[in-house]
Protein: 2-keto-4-methylthiobutyrate aminotransferase apoenzyme
Amino acid sequence: MKGIPIQSKLPNLQVSIFAVMTRLAEETKAINLSQGFPDFNCNPRLIDLVFHYIKTGRNQYAPMPGILPLREAISRKIAGLYGALYDPQSEITITAGATEALYAAITSVVQSGDEVIIFEPFYDAYPPVVKYSGGVPRFIRLNPPDFRIPWQKVKNIISKKTKLIIINSPHNPTGAILEKEDLEKLAEIVDGTSIFIVSDEVYEHIVFDNKKHLSLAMHPALQRRTFVISSFGKTYHTTGWKVGYCAAPELLSHEFRKIHQFITFAVNTPVQWAYADILNKKELYLQLPKFYQKKRDLFRKAMLASNFDLLPCRGTYFQVADYYKISRESDLEFVKKLATKHGVAAIPLSPFYDEEPEQQLIRFCFAKQDATLIKAGERLCQI
Structure:
C-alpha cells in the first residue's frame, strides 16, 4: 500500500545542517567543532540539585508558565543586569529551550502575509517558523568581517506589512554584538510603528574584551514591544536539558503563553527547581565571559600557523574562519572534506542564508576542553 500523499508546508526544507554535521563527525570520528555544545560537564552543584529535587518528589507537572521561584529568580537577574522590571507572574515564561520560545514568540504575532525582517546569516530556525505562520521573510545581509547591521537598509525595507524584526546578539554564527548606537537606531526605526521584536539573547553571558551585553530589555522604548529570549543551556553548559525562557510585557506574554501551552505545556520540573537555586550564585554566570574568552584565545592561538583567516569574535562560543587561501570549493563540500580527510568537523555558513553567498566561511565551536581545541588546531594547521 502506498503512503498517503502529503502536501508539505515547506517542500524545500532540508534536515538541519547541525544534524548533518554531527552525524558526519560521529561517522568519521572527527573532532566535533560543529554543533554548539560543550564537551565538558556542568557544575557538579547543579547536578546535585537536580538529584535533590527528584528525590524529594518534584517530579510532576510544573505550572504552565514555569515554577514561580524560577521566574522570580530570572526577574531579579534581569533587573540586576539590565535595570528592567518584569513581573514574574505575568511576564516571564519558562520554555522547552530557546527554540521553543522562538517558535511561540514568532507564531504569536505573525499572521498570513506579514513581513518579518531577518538578518543573514541567521540561526536556521527563524525562516521556517516565519513561513509556517504564513509570514514572508525579508532578508538583510550582514557583511564580513564585522557583520554590523546596516540600519539604512532596515529603514528602507520597512513597509506597512512589516510585523516583526528578529534580532540576535551575541550573534550566532558570527559572534557579532550590538552596540549602544544599534539600540538607538532600532528604537528610532520602530518608533510610531506596530512592529514587534524578537530578541534572541541566548549567548547573553558570553561577551568578550570587556564589552557588555546590551539586552533590548535595557531600552524602555524597545522593551515594550520585544520578546527577550534566553537559554539556561548556554549559561550552565546544559544544552541537553533544553530549558529556556521568554521575558515580555504582559500583553505579549499573554499571547505567547497561548502558543506555549499547546507546544509543551510544562517544562522539566526538577530541572526548573535546580536552576532556581543556582541562579542565586551570580558568580557562575558573571565569570562566563572570562571562562570562554580564554577558550577563544586558546583556539585562535592554536590556529596562528594555519592557512585560515580568523574573523573577529566578540561573543558566543563560535569562531568564523575564511578558508579562501586553502580552497574555492563550496563551504559544504569543504567541511565534509575537513571531517573525512582531516578529522575536524565544522559548520558551513551557507545554510544560514536565503541565497548562498560567494564566500568561503565556516564556523568552529570552541566550547570544548582545552586539549580538544589544541588537538583540533594541530590538525587544522596541517591543511
Notes: The longest strand covers residues 162-168. The longest helix spans residues 68-82.
